[in-house]
Amino acid sequence: MALGLALSFLTGCFALLFLMRQWLRRQQAAPRVQAAFSLIVILGSLLGVWLSLRLEYPAGPQLRFAGAPLPLVVFKNEGGQWVDYVHPRPVMAFLLMANCALCATTLAGPLVLWQALGRRPAPPAP
Q1: Where are the domains of the chain?
Q2: What's the pLDDT score for residue 121?
């Protein structure tokens, strides 16, 4: 199940990033905007790695997640002792890539939206 979730997020985010890049090129966006897009994607990917490997947050008194936005490890309190439920390494690798792609897409979206709103044609004069 986690592998399917990771693959669906990974595919969707890569498709969105590809479409955003193609749209910027078709609109002949300034080189600064395209460079900013690339930099945002790289920084978003690094943020995704950091969130996946360093962030741990509680989801209640009996449950904790390690990794975000998609958790890599789930900790459950069973009888006063925390038990970890770890995905297999290949699944964790796909979850890490999906987190990177999700963070990159989330950060790059506002730049593309700003570019799209700035290119709207002016309303006709009365």
Answers
A1: 2-117
A2: 65
